[in-house]
Design brief:
alpha/beta
Length: 332
């Protein structure tokens, strides 16, 4: 397994981490992702550990805490050998303060996550989204205090706009708070928006990216093909709810090219899509999901080899996005 620094930190992490959005499935939304129980989760973690993956990503909102609980139980006896990332911000109850990035909610969310995970500390804690109703200083001071107390060790943010991230970094620098070391965001061959604003910012600030949904909500697995019915799985079950729209013919073109390259090198469509990301600037880690052992092993086998320059160019050219203003001005 290849290891990289977690963004601007000194922490070494495997280039793949296991996402646990499939753990639990205790509400309608997450049932579409999966319903992995403790026994199944422990087996998936066994496979990860055997392959050098000791990094596990969850969030309090995943199945309203059930994902964290299952992960905590599945990691019993091997907590010290593992790295856990979790998140907070989104709604966790009916109370008016049961969401957001206020001091009250962050502290409550961290304490609740610690209990569910059955651990004394969280290795990496993310703000799951930007809260425009809370002063940035309040959020960052609270996170800084939680690091000082030993309850969390590193901090990151997810789903922030570039200006929100840059302002947060500036506030941390001004007040001598701990800074976000990693950004977790959506990036795939059919979703390259990240490259226009966020990638240059992360390069400039020496941060790293943890990629979520590297297969574009399961649309780059090969299950969606031109003139073919969708096979059983997350997409057919409605697990792509909330996914950004992609033109059908464009998606088919991308999958056709992935299939062509996969055939050339005896890999799968999913493996080629993940490997393309591993070659891109700023990527520290890719969060992979799996509903079963077969999917997990297939995704892990995306590591340990590299697409050729020519293959990367073919994929880059087909999926290149038109720059947004003002970026296209410099292209003239």
């Amino acid at each position: 397994m290849e290891y990289r620094n977690l963004g601007r930190s000194g922490l070494k992490v495997p280039v793949l981490s296991l996402g646990t959005g499939t753990f639990g499935g205790t509400n309608e939304f997450f049932q579409r992702w999966g319903q992995t129980d403790v026994k199944e989760a422990a087996r998936l973690i066994d496979i990860c550990m055997e392959r050098g993956i000791n990094f596990f990503d969850t969030a309090n909102v995943y199945s309203q805490g059930a994902s964290e609980e299952i992960l905590g139980q599945a990691l019993k006896g091997r907590r010290q050998q593992s790295i856990i990332a979790t998140k907070g911000t989104f709604k966790m109850g009916e109370g008016i303060n049961d969401k957001g990035s206020s001091r009250l909610h962050i502290i409550t969310a961290v304490e609740d996550s610690l209990k569910r995970l059955d651990t004394d500390y969280i290795d990496l804690y993310f703000m799951h989204g930007f809260d425009s109703n809370t002063p940035i200083e309040e959020t960052l001071r609270t996170l800084d205090n939680l690091i000082t107390s030993g309850k969390i060790r590193y901090i990151g943010c997810s789903n922030f706009a570039a200006w929100q991230l840059m302002k947060s970094l500036s506030v941390s620098e001004k007040n001598h708070f701990e800074k976000y070391v990693i950004y977790q965001g959506y990036y795939s061959l059919i979703g390259r928006d990240y490259e226009q604003e966020l990638m240059p910012l992360l390069k400039d600030q020496q941060m790293g990216l943890m990629v979520w949904s590297p297969l574009g909500w399961g649309r780059l697995t090969g299950k969606i093909r031109r003139n073919k019915p969708i096979s059983d799985g997350r997409i057919k079950a409605g697990g792509d709810v909330g996914a950004p729209p992609v033109d059908d013919n464009y998606l088919y073109d991308v999958v056709d090219l992935l299939d062509e390259i996969a055939t050339e090198i005896n890999k799968t469509i999913s493996q080629v899509a993940i490997n393309w990301l591993l070659q891109k600037d700023t990527v520290s880690n890719i969060v992979i999901g799996a509903r079963n052992e077969q999917q997990l092993i297939e995704n892990i086998d995306a590591v340990g080899w590299a697409l050729s320059h020519e293959q990367m160019q073919r994929l880059n050219q087909l999926t290149q996005q038109t720059p947004l203003y003002p970026h296209w001005v410099g292209e003239r």
